[in-house]
Amino acid sequence: MKVYIGGDHAGFELKEKVKDYIKKLGYALEDVGPFKYDPEDDYPDYTIPLAKKVTKDKNSRGIIIAGSGIGEVIASNKVNGIRAVLFHGKANKFFLETSRIHNDTNILCFGSRFVSLRQAKKGIRIWLNTKFSKEERHKRRLDKISKYEKSRK
């Protein structure tokens, strides 16, 4: 599976620190930026292209690290086919697993202002290693979301 990673200036330092960890877990990784610290950058410039890559590559997921992660969840979820979840450092294993098992989330967003490096690594590992259940009730619910997305075009 391929993992796309991105963020903004506020998440740049943490993004750079978790990249090797993701590779160490055995995932292919593509950084979509930013590629240097720029206090004037805007998260939609990285978040939306990352989300589009995830929708085109069905065997992928995305991780977006910014200041809070809130705007990134909002922007990501504007892209049809994206189910982004906001992770905060105090979220437990059950929360991250449920986001994958029930909702097949494909983008994980969090903020460097709320999540430590240790929490980020733990959350990323749990989220990447948890599979969607494919239970009929969960598939049915996601199909309803997809149907609605398609009706908005």
Question: Which structural category do the helix and sheet elements fall into?
Answer: alpha/beta
Element pattern in H and E: EHEHEHEHEHH
- Biggest β-sheet strands, sense, barrel: 5 strands, parallel
Helix coverage percent:
40-55%
Number of strands: 5
The CATH homologous superfamily: Sugar-phosphate isomerase, RpiB/LacA/LacB
What is the CATH first-level class name?
A: Alpha Beta
Stretches with pLDDT under 50, minimum 5 residues: none
Distance between the termini: 29 Å
Largest sheet, spatial ordering of strands: 2-1-3-5-4
Tell me the β content: 15-25%
CATH topology descriptor: Ribose 5-phosphate Isomerase B, Chain: A
- Count of individual helical segments: 6
- At CATH's second level, what is the architecture? 3-Layer(aba) Sandwich
Structure description:
By secondary structure, the chain is an alpha/beta fold. The chain has one domain: Sugar-phosphate isomerase, RpiB/LacA/LacB (Ribose 5-phosphate Isomerase B, Chain: A). It has 6 helices and 5 strands, in the order βαβαβαβαβαα. The protein has a 5-stranded parallel beta sheet with strand order 2-1-3-5-4, sandwiched between helices.
Concise synopsis of the structure shown:
The chain is α/β, with parallel strands linked by helices.
Keywords, separated by commas or semicolons:
alpha/beta; Ribose 5-phosphate Isomerase B, Chain: A; five-stranded parallel sheet; 153 residues; single chain; 5 strands
